[in-house]
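thought: fold this chain, then report.
action: predict
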Amino acid sequence: MAILGLALGSQHPESARADGDPASDVLSGQTVFLPQDAGSSPKQQAQLGALLRAAQRSGYPIKVALIASSSDLGSVGELWRQPDNYALFLGQELSLVYRGRLLVIMPNGYGLYTHGGPVAAERSALARLRAPGVGGLAAAALTTIQRLAAAAGHRLSVPDSAVASGPSSSSSDTVPWIVFAIGAALIALAWTASLRARPPHIGRRRTSSG
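observation:
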């Protein structure tokens, strides 16, 4: 089967679309392949995206493919449970558009590919990690990226909550009240100013009429 993986790896990104490998298509323009059956939470998805952006900024670009089942491999399902062989295949598929590090995570283990071969420190870091299992792919990705980056001299941290696209529920509830209070204060100021600017004879007419 290793020979099959090497043979498949001789293809190019154009053939990825022909052979139906979903991760090849996604990773040609994005940093993570995250299928629905990976079971990741919205928070984990946000954290993973934030961590990959931080890795890029720190000078450690890496792309990640989470493979939860053989169906995620498309027409190369024979590489299921072979993370190293699939990393080699996928890395060579992407070689015309991307030559950085590529991490593959399957329930039974990890695969790492870089153009020219990963450094020994990164291989050693992977060897110390436990297999993530079916439901732990996203959590394993967060840990693994940090360990690999550290082995290459880059310290990365996962934000507690990377879901920062909008305000939190507490702040979103507070904002309308603040706006309402400011509006009421402005109305009161305008009303007071209008009273002070009112001509004196209006006040005298009302007094005399009373």
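thought: worth noting. Confidence is low (pLDDT under 50) at residues 1-18, 163-180, 202-210.
final: tokens above.
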